[in-house]
Design goal:
By secondary structure, the chain is of the alpha+beta class. It is built from five helices and six strands, in the order αααβαβαββββ. The strands form two sheets. The protein has a four-stranded antiparallel sheet. It has a two-stranded antiparallel ribbon with strand order 5-6. The chain is elongated, with a radius of gyration of 21 Å. The mean pLDDT is 83.
Length: 147
């Protein structure tokens, strides 16, 4: 029989190992959720054509957003802003629904809607942290982590 100290250490190692296992069994759910959100926004592109239309659409869909003005974008853009196009930028953060994906990959799908000086949509970009791959060259395997 193991002493109490050794039992606690073994229990901690097993719990740590079990905590690392869920991301290996997502079966592409994280990427599928990201793709679905990106495709839904692409389908809605006609409804996002101008700044006013985009704001109305996002409010109607209960998607929280914040606006970075053209002046803010030019002087000191937020870290999330990829490119300034001369007009405002709407930053949307869609929460990830899958619990495993939320904890092991990313908590939100970030969307950036960039507008030009005439307030027309010129760029739509969606991002989520990439999944990682665990490579086991000895076994010739590549295993997806939170795909």
């Amino acid at each position: 029989m193991l002493p109490v100290r050794a039992s606690v250490i073994v229990l901690l190692v097993v719990c740590g190992w079990l905590a690392l296992m869920p991301p290996f069994f997502t079966h592409g759910a994280c990427t599928a959720e990201f793709d679905a959100a990106s495709e839904a926004l692409q389908r809605a592109r006609p409804a996002l054509g101008t700044l006013t239309q985009a704001q109305d659409y996002l409010r109607a869909q209960a998607m929280p957003f914040r606006m970075v003005t053209a002046e803010q974008c030019d002087s000191s853009p937020a870290w999330e802003v990829e490119v300034c196009h001369g007009g405002p930028v709407l930053l949307v953060a869609l929460p990830v629904k899958n619990r495993v994906c939320r904890y092991y990959r990313d908590s939100s799908i970030r969307v950036q809607l960039g507008f030009n000086k005439t307030l027309e949509l010129v760029r739509m970009q969606s991002d989520m942290n990439p999944y990682h791959m665990l490579k086991l060259p000895i076994l010739g395997l590549e295993v997806d982590w939170a795909k």
